[in-house]
């Protein structure tokens, strides 16, 4: 028994309108109206399947097939996230949730009676697009982020995570590590759209992850002298925007030289006026590399170039790591089983995932579905219904092996 592309498309289309923007991109920030509507959609779909839905203290949703035996560590968990980056694609996150629900259907139609409980999970704030810390739901669950720090995280409007959760009817005092829940998870499998074109190059619809590159987010502060754009002589300026601009170019060049990735995709400028030399500029650097030594070397090279340039511009520069993630290897029995079962190509990825957080605690596998555009975190991200159906079947095959 397998799922048809039309059947995939039917469930997929029921989620598509929620949080869609005029540009075809999605804005589904955690605890926003759109994300809450996505969560409601999930709860309804889970209840339609007679799954027992619960929400944990960190706001992650769990839909159980078979009761979670509190004394056992045998549950098989699959799922992903429903939140998005600003103007992101439709597939990043939701594909893993929709596929998990359909995989449950497929297993039932195949007559599989799981010997181990199976859960579909939706992790909250995976992208970190609202509160700045990616994989926040899974990191809180595993204790990688302290609850006090999480409660105080603020969005762009200054609203704290605690307030946003309270507004959604949750008790922010319940945020924090949940070792009992984590101990019940025996394996985690996350299906995700590929964020690159490797599967397309190989002509294969589904792949299995080998590792996630180490990566980090760094805050870059550039401080200068705010002044009049018309009256300040060019030679008298201490313009932090110049140091910032140079640093963006230097980051790009260093990343190319070292076979790594560096991106500056977010900046804040003060006072942000057309006719004023800025007093201050803040930028966020996203840096990733195949190993930690290369990543450290990359960030140090960027820091050095920015400091040198700040000296010439008469500005001040500081770099601070806001979050860093070490390399994640998926070399474990569950991942090896998935690769064998699907006879799928094995791919590394530069993107972080809840699966990467879970992998430090639970045997975890990731499945990727072909994305012919190779584009991610943008509206052009795409997978065909045929490939998505193949992803559901592959996920069901893996889960069937794991839960018996
Ligand atoms: Zn994702």
Structure summarized in a few sentences:
By secondary structure, the chain is of the alpha/beta class. The protein has 13 helices and 15 strands. The strands form 3 sheets. Strands 1, 2, 3, 4, 5, 6, 13, 14 and 15 form a 9-stranded mixed β-sheet that branches.
Any descriptors?
single chain; 404 residues; alpha/beta; nine-stranded mixed sheet; four-stranded antiparallel sheet; 13 helices; 15 strands; 36% helix; binds zinc ion
Protein described:
It is a single chain. β1 (52-55) and β2 (61-65) form a beta hairpin. The protein is built from 13 helices and 15 strands. The mean pLDDT is 95. It is 36% helix and 23% strand. The protein is globular and about 80 Å long. The structure holds zinc ion. The site of zinc ion (ZN) has 6 residues, from loops.
Strand content: 15-25%
Give a list of the ligands: zinc ion
Tell me, what's the shape? globular
Would you identify the regions where 5 or more consecutive residues have pLDDT less than 50?
A: none
Number of helices: 13
Please render the helix and strand layout as text:
Blueprint: H1 5-15, H2 33-48, E1 52-55, E2 61-65, E3 75-81, H3 94-109, E4 118-123, H4 136-142, H5 147-152, H6 161-167, H7 179-184, E5 185-193, H8 198-202, E6 206-212, E7 215-223, E8 227-228, H9 240-257, E9 261-270, E10 276-277, E11 280-288, H10 292-313, E12 316-325, E13 328-329, H11 333-342, E14 346-349, H12 354-358, E15 363-369, H13 385-402
Parallel strand pairs: 3-4, 3-5, 5-15, 6-14
Antiparallel strand pairs: 1-2, 2-4, 6-13, 6-15, 7-11, 7-12, 8-10, 9-11
Helix pairs in contact: 1-3, 1-13, 3-13, 9-10, 11-13
The structure holds zinc ion (ZN).
Residues 81, 92-93, 126, 192, 353 line the site of zinc ion.
């Amino acid at each position: 028994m397998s799922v048809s592309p039309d059947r995939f498309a039917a469930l997929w289309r029921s989620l598509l309108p929620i949080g869609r923007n005029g540009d075809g991109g999605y804005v589904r920030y955690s605890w926003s109206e759109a994300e809450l509507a996505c969560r409601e959609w999930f709860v309804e779909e889970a209840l339609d399947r007679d799954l027992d839905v619960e929400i944990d203290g960190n706001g992650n949703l769990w839909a159980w097939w078979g009761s979670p035996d509190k004394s056992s560590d045998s549950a098989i968990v699959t799922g992903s996230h429903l939140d998005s980056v600003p103007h992101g694609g439709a597939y990043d996150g939701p594909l893993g949730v929709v596929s998990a629900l359909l995989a449950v259907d497929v297993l039932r139609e195949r007559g599989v009676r799981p010997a181990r409980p199976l859960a579909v999970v939706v992790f909250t704030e995976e992208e970190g697009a609202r509160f700045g810390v990616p994989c926040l739901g899974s990191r809180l669950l595993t204790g990688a982020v302290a609850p006090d720090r999480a409660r105080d995280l603020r969005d762009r409007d200054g609203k704290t995570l605690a307030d946003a959760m309270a507004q959604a009817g949750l008790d922010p005092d319940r945020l924090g590590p949940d070792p009992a829940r984590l101990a019940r998870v025996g394996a985690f499998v996350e299906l995700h759209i590929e964020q690159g074109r490797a599967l397309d190059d190989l002509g294969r619809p589904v792949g299995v992850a080998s590792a996630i590159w180490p990566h980090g987010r760094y805050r870059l502060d550039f401080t200068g002298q705010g002044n009049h754009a018309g009256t300040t002589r060019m030679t008298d300026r201490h313009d932090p925007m110049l140091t910032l601009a140079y640093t963006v170019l230097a980051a790009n060049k260093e990343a190319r030289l070292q076979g790594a990735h560096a991106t500056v995709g977010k900046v804040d400028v003060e006072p942000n006026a057309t006719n004023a030399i800025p007093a201050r500029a803040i930028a966020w650097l996203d840096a990733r590399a195949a190993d930690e030594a290369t990543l450290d070397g990359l960030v140090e090279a960027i820091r050095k170039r920015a400091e040198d340039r700040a000296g010439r511009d008469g500005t001040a520069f500081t770099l601070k790591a806001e979050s860093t993630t070490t390399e994640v290897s998926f070399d474990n029995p569950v991942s090896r089983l998935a690769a064998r079962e699907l006879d799928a190509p094995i791919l590394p990825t530069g993107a972080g995932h809840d699966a990467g957080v879970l992998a430090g605690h639970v045997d975890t596998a990731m499945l990727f579905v072909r994305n012919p555009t190779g584009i991610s975190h943008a509206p052009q991200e795409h997978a065909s219904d045929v490939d998505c159906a193949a992803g559901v079947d592959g996920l069901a095959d893996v889960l069937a092996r794991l839960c018996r």
